[in-house]
Amino acid sequence: MMDTERASGSVNSAEILLIEHSGMVGNIIVSTARQLGLPHLRLVNNARSARHFLAHQAFVGLIAALDDEEEALELIGNLRKGDYKSAKNTPVAITTAQCSADLANRIKVLGLHRILIKPFKIRDLVTTIETLTDQP
Amino acid sequence: MRQLLILDTPPEERFDRIAAFAADEFDVPIAVVSLVDSERTWFKSHCGLDVCEAPRDISFCGHAIMSDEPFIIPDATLDARFADNPHVALEPHVRFYAGACLKLPGGQNVGTLCLFDFKPREMDRVALAILGTLRDLVVEQLLLKTAQP
């Protein structure tokens, strides 16, 4: 994903969309990121809500839990096709309970920047946020 | 602090979950939600620790609540305030302590969310931010309890 294509939607502030099904974990991530001065995280708890936000706003990164795997992968695929306001090459990371060979094959084409296996450390998620926003 | 009506109440999952999360996140053997009473430090949640209270005069948390800032002891054996503390000099030989104050809206520091380890450690800015976030969750839960009829 080397192209620098920009999406038509403007990025009002450097927001990252975070899909996390656990409210407690999601809130810990958001609050910690805020304390560290990292880009603002928009927290949603499922891919359906994420789709709504992606349709109306451009994000500089996406961190998606694959708890609802099919829907989340479809969403990332749509992002790569340019179906949302974010750039096609928006950096994406996923969190998943396991990464089977089948899943590995499916995500290979999605140009992911990082995969975190649950249960992950909040520290690792913080590093992931920094990595996403350090993309050239 | 007594208005919280929490001293000597049974363990609660909502606090235990935060303490367990802290122990996992920081890879420490002990994580505690403590409340500092006049003569003792009482543990609302004590992940990895069998006892539920300790005398205040030998309590790390008793020191921690004296300041709003996180109270970090990287190696207690090298700290004149704690080197001869029974928890340090004797079993379980605590070496590391990190405590974040539970501050109520009125300004009182009533206790801590704290971590113990048996080996020296450091806390960087990310670790401090995570500890602060977990501390905020504990305070939120304390206040929820207070708000209930």
Folded structure, characterized:
The complex is a heterodimer of chains A (136) and B (149). Chain A has 136 residues and is α/β, with parallel strands linked by helices. Helix content of chain A is 41%, strand content 18%. Chain A has five helices and five strands. Chain A has a five-stranded parallel sheet with strand order 2-1-3-4-5, with helices on both faces. In chain A, helix 1 crosses helix 5 and helix 2 runs parallel beside helix 3. The radius of gyration of chain A is 14 Å and the shape is globular. Chain B is an alpha+beta fold. Chain B is 31% helix and 26% strand. Chain B contains four helices and six strands. In chain B, helix 1 runs antiparallel to helix 4.
Short précis:
The complex is a heterodimer of chains A (136) and B (149). Chain A has helices at residues 23-35, 47-56, 69-81, 101-108, 122-133; strands at residues 15-19, 40-44, 61-65, 92-96, 114-117.
Chart the SSEs and their pairings:
The complex is a heterodimer of chains A (136) and B (149).
Chain A (H helix, E strand, L loop, with lengths): L14 E5 L3 H13 L4 E5 L2 H10 L4 E5 L3 H13 L10 E5 L4 H8 L5 E4 L4 H12 L3
Parallel strand pairs in A: 1-2, 1-3, 3-4, 4-5
Helix pairs in contact in A: 1-5, 2-3
Chain B lengths: L12 H14 L3 E7 L3 E8 L5 E3 L4 H5 L6 E3 L12 H4 L6 E8 L5 E9 L7 H23 L2
